Amino acid sequence: MADMQATNSRFPAMAPRAVSNQRHVLAAAATGFRDFVGRNGGNAAQVFSRVGVEERQLDDVNIPLDLGAYVSMMEIAAAQTGNDNFGLWYGQQFRPEMLGLIGGIAIASPTLGDALTNLAKLFPYHQQATETSFSREGGLLRWEYRILDGGIVARRQDAELTLGMVVNVFRHCLGPSWAPEEVHCEHPKPEGWREHESAFAAPVYFGQRTNAVIFRNDGLTRRMPHANLRKLNLLCDEIVQVGGGTGVVSLLDQVKGEIRSRLPDGLPYVETIADALGIPRWTLQRRLADYGVSFSDAVDLVRRELAERHIRQAYVSIVEIADILGYSELSAFSRAFRRWFGLSPQKYREALLRA
Questions:
Q1: Dihedral (C-alpha) 226, 92, 256, 65: value to the nearest 10 degrees?
Q2: What is the DSSP letter of 188?
Q3: Helix or strand or coil: residue 136?
Q4: What total of structural domains would you count in the chain?
Q5: Which of residues 203, 223, 243 is at a domain's end?
Q6: What is the pTM of this model?
Q7: How far, in Å, are 93, 117, 170 from residue 178 at the CA level?
Q8: Is the pLDDT of residue 2 over 70?
Q9: Per-residue pLDDT averaged across 14-37, rounded?
Q10: Does an H or E element contain 135, and which?
């Protein structure tokens, strides 16, 4: 196992970052976390200790928590409780009124369509370094969510709980039986994936570019049950003030995030990532050089990090991992994996199981 922990000398030491990551989430996102962990047989105090969060921080819903620590909380809770679908069910029970300012904004919006628009616009103040959008795609509508910081690798539980929170905004307005047309998740299909289709009452597709709820236009003009325009305006002002901005992510982690979202479609081009970040290609390459990496190094790094994460999930097939990482052939993925870790994907997984 010592060989499996070796670092890849192909990646040079990175220069100090010119910009420190600033990415937090308001503590309202962890409402009921202690009790939910306990009901699942876990110990919340141990989870908090491992990620460096003080339990008393959750007493004020507007206290900022480090986003990386928050996402890790959910992953650790899933492992500790033995509930691989921890985030899925934590999100399903997360009603809008539990979500602090951003939940209050959804509730106070005039119509469901306004609630979804306001969520997409203001969610990055609730959770920084996050991209949310509400758009039309063909004859359907799409509410999307993804973390922009590519340095946060393990984030499946967060994605599933966030999608559950969003679906509950629909159900707050349209009733508990409402269901989307589809749900998309960026991570691989988990072992208990049938629970996802049961929770959302819809087909769930994994290994997608982003996390999204796909739905029909019906009901967008429905009035929210507790619409209050005056309260809405006050809450919108407050979340911008409390959130303190939408976050700052280093260029390298932005690039890694954009690469990650495009890998399921194949190998991304530097021009595509530069366009997504709104900077010229040559500027992107020059700024990456300040970190001691080229664009191809960044792609390789993202693939390596995700491969190491997914290979530990025994229910995810090696073929599926190769596909999610944008390899057109399994043999190409196997060669890259052996270069990274000195073993084939199958032998690496077998060694993990023996350990």
A1: 70
A2: P
A3: strand
A4: 2
A5: 243
A6: 0.90
A7: 15, 19, 7
A8: no
A9: 80
A10: strand 130-137
